Amino acid sequence: MSSILSKKVHSLKFINSFQTGILALFVISTLLILVTSITLGSFNFSLQELLNDSNSLDNIVLLEIRIPRVLLAAFVGASLGLSGASLQGLFRNPLADPGLIGVSAGAALGASIVIVLGSGILPDFIFGTLILPISAIIGASLVISLLYLFTQGFGYQGITYMLLVGIAVNAFASVGIGILTYISTDSELRGLTFWTMGSFGGASWQLIIPALIIISLTMFWMIPSARKLDLLQLGEPEAYRLGVDVRKLKFKVIIASAITVGISVSLSGMIGFVGLVVPHLVRLIGGVNHNYLLPGSAFLGASLMMTADLLSRTLIQPAELPVGLITSAIGAPFFLWLIFRIRKT
Amino acid sequence: MSVETINLTWEIKSKRIVDEVSLKINQGEILTILGPNGAGKSSFLKLIAGDSTASDGEIKFDDIPLSNISIQDRSFMRSVMSQSQEIAYDFTVKEIIEMGWIDRGISDYSKDFEEAVKKISIECSVADLLEQSFNTLSGGEKRRVHFARTLIQLWRPSGSDDPRYMFLDEPTANLDILHEQKMMRLIQNKRDEGIGILLILHDLNLAAKYSDQIAIFNEGKLLEIGAPRTVLNEETLSKVYGLDMQIEESPFRINYY
Q: Domain range spanning residue A262?
């Protein structure tokens, strides 16, 4: 008889020491970029000055504008990186992106509707801090419900349907946004255009604290499924035979992505290509297993997004570039390179 | 201990692709299913693997209905190998084999993990490939890697008497004759360890040589089941395959024209 004492704990991590080292580097660089992003901008801060004088205008800019903005960029980057990596795993397709299943488009449509139809009616305060994010999340949730309906509860039947529904939803959302653009007034149009290109300019503590909490919780919920995503790469039947409840896994990935992407889109607009590019870079650096890929994509996503935001704030200061413009400018050529590379192999 | 099906039926669009099949896969025995294309062999395997749900009939693992066994528990007691899908990302061969290791949380034998992977890699002649990218392998090599993964899934420390079953759909497809014979011998070794094995094969002589029991399927029905030499007779085979068959007795060999 074997006693309980003789049973040693040997929990297998399925991540090698090289990858653990890379993750540590990602964490360190994220922190360094965080500090750099906080100190640089149209106001430059030196940390020493701030420590000496805690009531200056500098201090207010830092605490009320700069820090929330940088934190929001970090969390949105992490959300997009992580959901991109999970969706690419779920669809077993390196071209999958949070935008692919239509959730970004749903969120965008939700937000556009209130920008055009609601901005005149509601006072700015309620509109900006509450209605816009909520309607974006509602848009994202509607897309998920639609996906759920069309794929019959994410049944054990392959995921082609979900991709096709995603295409349809994207098309439908661009029609919706197109109509809204057509009927919008000049000032609304300006809001709409700027917002669809993405920006972290509107960040305030009030706005981001609930978002940061929800995004963090969703990440902690998602990352333990990494090993199951590895097994899914063998195909759905194989993953099931290896003990993975494929339906549950799909549900989890979709819901987690919808929440993180929906919130990200609502707070910062449509920021393209981060969810596509980041997981690829992480794979190129250290490997494809999800125990490494998921946290790696979250941290690299945060680093890259803070860098992009820093560029958007500093390139043509005191004016600002939309951050989505910067990520797309870098991401689109990368996307083409990726397609070229896939075709070659 | 056995996997048993009772009147197992699978009907799709009022066509019975598996038609009232009752049979038993005993532990420590190799049961091979033979039959022409479309006879329902792979569909039968999908049903007992739990991939698909039967329209009628029962499947019991050691007297417990399959539907009462959780997805996780199923993965402890049976492994399945069938035609595999493309893998989108560059996993190494070692990573693919390790995917067969079912995480049972805290257990007294995960310490043997590295050793088990090494031993099985050597048995399946994939030890030299471990660090290579899986996607660069040839069809036969991929097959051997998946087979190694199937074996890792059922790996137990010596002396374990857990009931285990292996369902293999044309495991020797794409293999050269050396590796074909090696794999069949390995399957026999696993049978001797007490694993119950269901095979689907197309090569009649390979089946005759390595099986303990043979089941012949035709049009979804189980036509005959029994020892190779009784079931494999000229009359049945000619009828099922629509080909003239001739059987030589010693050594036992089936010729067809």
A: 61-344
Residue A10, in any domain of the structure: no
Total beta-carbon pairs less than 8 A apart between chain A and chain B = 80
Q: Are strands B15-26 and B2-12 parallel, antiparallel or unpaired?
A: antiparallel
CB contact under 8 A, A233 and B102: no
CATH code: domain of residue A228: 1.10.3470.10
Identify whether A15 is part of a domain.
Answer: no
Residue pLDDT, tens place only, B37-66: 999 999 999 999 999 999 999 999 999 999
Q: What is the CATH number of domain B2-256?
A: 3.40.50.300
Q: Which residue has the higher pLDDT, A141 or B92?
A: B92
Interface of A with B in 85-104 (CB under 8 A): 92-94
ipTM of the complex: 0.92
Q: Please list, residue by residue across A182-214, b when 16 or more beta carbons sit within 10 angstroms of its beta carbon and e when fewer do.
A: eebeeebbebbeebbbbbbbbbeeebbeebbeb
Question: Residue B116 and residue B122: Cα distance in Å, rounded?
Answer: 10
Please report residues of B whose CB lies closer than 8 A to that of A234. Answer: 84-85, 87, 96, 99
Instruction: Please tell me the total count of domains within chain A.
Output: 1
CA A252 to chain CA centroid, nearest Å? 16
Domain ranges of chain B: 2-256
Q: Is residue A24 part of a domain?
A: no
Question: Crossing angle for the helix pair A323-344 and A290-314, nearest 10 degrees?
Answer: 140
The DSSP symbol for A5 reads G
Rounded to a whole number of angstroms, the distance from the CA of A98 to the nearest CA of chain B is: 18
String of DSSP letters for B85-152: PP-SS--BHHHHHHTT----SS-TTGGGHHHHHHHHHHHTT-GGGTTSBGGGS-HHHHHHHHHHHHHH
Kindly report, residue by residue over A150-202, the tens digit of the pLDDT: 765 554 444 566 677 778 888 888 898 888 888 887 777 776 776 667 778 87
Q: Let me know if residue A130 belongs to a domain.
A: yes
Give pLDDT, residue A317.
77
Q: How far is CA A57 from each of CA A54, A64, A144, B105, B165, rounded to the nearest angstrom?
A: 9, 10, 45, 55, 73
